[in-house]
Amino acid sequence: MKRALIAGITGQDGSYLAEFLAGKGYEVHGIVRRASSFNTGRIDHLYQDPHENKPRLVLHYGDLSDGTGLRRILENVRPDEVYNLAAQSHVKVSFEAPEYTADIVASGTLRLLEAVRDYNDISKASVRVYQAGSSEMFGAASPPQSEATPFYPRSPYAASKVAAHWYALNYREAYGMFICNGILFNHESPRRGETFVTRKITRAVGRIKHGLQEKLFLGNLDAKRDWGFAGDYVEAMCMMLQHDKPDDYVVATGEAYSVQEFLVKAFGRVGLNWQDYVEIDPRYFRPTEVDFLQGDPTKVMTTLGWKPRVSFDELVNMMVDQDLDLALRERTLTDAGFRRHIHS
Ligand code: NAP
Ligand code: F7E
Asked: Residue 36 burial by CB count (10 A; 0-12/13-18/19+): exposed, middle or buried?
């Protein structure tokens, strides 16, 4: 039985990856940050009481700011594969918290790589590492972007991901470590954080339809993104680590749509016209914007045989349908006298 350690297991991707690996028979371990409120909602359905039987999912408290803790977790878990998905992953927030973003996204990756390097030396193991890179690293570079496209980061988040990418590549070359950089374009799902634009839109569609919200405030509607389904993308992460040699791969659908096109589809799903509800609020503009991301996934398709299963229309419908259900439950609670406040 293989053992995987996932940093960032409580996030959107971490939850899908944990499900996917558990389904393939892995023993899955995850690093969870201590928080004052529960942050395991996305993985609660996978969790079994560790006192009752041999658990397939084991959680460990840790943080990418704490290198000693990471080393201890590695020594305890003795993983075959490590997936580094942990990050302050919000681009707009990274302009407000640049040092913190750099500490976790760039230096945090370095801490984890150092811990794996030393663990490999001490235990004579060869742990395989996946590093979660991002299409944001391409930033202002013209589409379509492939592995050969030079990086041009446009935010503290993106610059930190570029640093992490090069740390990973350097550790592969310097120490012969098996490390893959996945350069993933935007991927969404019903589990997407509620402040990312797709989920913010689908949450609003559900709440507007059920009379819980009147307006949706957004920023730049002209930005174009290559949006795929997160459940498809975590499979590519695992496939990279099963290949015979470590390499870097762009993962994308190859299609791009604007935020406005997403709005048309999402509101159209429930028979509404987005223009009746959306207002522009400059607070959501970014000091430097990434205008157009469209990936070229030829390499991951031909080398690893990966391809996306969920289309753009299916993705929008899946997210809207789930958020309609969520809003209906919220409506029921509101009507019964309970109020639930959600800020997106
Ligand atoms: P996400 O939902 O924001 O999840 C991020 C995860 O990192 C969460 O589990 C979070 O824990 C954890 N985390 C944050 N700060 C941490 C710290 N200091 N120490 C340890 N863990 C920490 O992000 P995602 O969408 O799943 O993305 C996964 C990874 O892929 C991220 O690295 C992201 O930057 C990258 N990426 C995402 C996309 C995309 O479109 N989704 C595309 C390209 C790359 P809490 O739950 O406690 O907050
Ligand atoms: O913005 C525009 C915004 O925050 C998409 C992260 O997972 O993918 C994600 O980063 C676009 C931008 O995602 C609002 O200006 C308009 O052009 O959903 P987003 P992102 O910045 O592309 C990459 C690949 C990652 O690696 C990141 O971790 O939508 N936009 N109005 C808005 N965006 C937000 N969030 N909120 C708005 O109101």
From this structure: exposed
- Residue range 60-107, pLDDT digits in tens: 999 999 999 999 999 999 999 999 999 999 999 999 999 999 999 999
CATH fold group of domain 197-223+256-289+311-332 = UDP-galactose 4-epimerase; domain 1 (3.90.25)
Which residue CA neighbors atom 13 of ligand 2 most closely? Answer: 196
Q: Please report the sign of the dihedral spanned by the C-alpha atoms of residue 332, residue 268, residue 187, residue 214.
A: negative
For residue 135, report the distance from its CA to the centre of ligand 2, in Å: 11
CATH fold of the domain at 3-189+227-251: Rossmann fold (3.40.50)
With CA atoms as reference, report the closest residue to 238 among 57, 48, 16: 16
Q: At 251, phi and psi to the nearest 5? A: -125, 120
Q: CB of 19 within 8 A of CB of 97?
A: no
DSSP assignment of 298-343 equals: HHHHHHH-----S-HHHHHHHHHHHHHHHHHHHHHHHHTT------
Residue 152 annotated among the catalytic residues of the structure: no
> Is ligand 1 within 6 A of the CB of residue 6?
no
Torsion over CA of 318, 320, 322 and 326, rounded to 10 degrees?
A: 170
Helix (H) or strand (E) holding 129: strand 128-134
Every domain of the chain and the residues it spans: 3-189+227-251, 197-223+256-289+311-332
What is the rounded CA–CA span in Å between residue 215 and residue 204? Answer: 8
Cα of 227 from ligand 1 centre, angstroms: 17
Sign of CA dihedral 212, 215, 217, 221: positive
* Distance from the alpha carbon of residue 47 to the mean position of ligand 1, in angstroms: 19
Q: 119, 157, 167, 171: which is the annotated catalytic residue? A: 157
Q: Is the pTM of this model over 0.90?
A: yes
Q: pLDDT for 257-289, tens place per residue?
A: 999 999 999 999 999 999 999 999 999 999 999
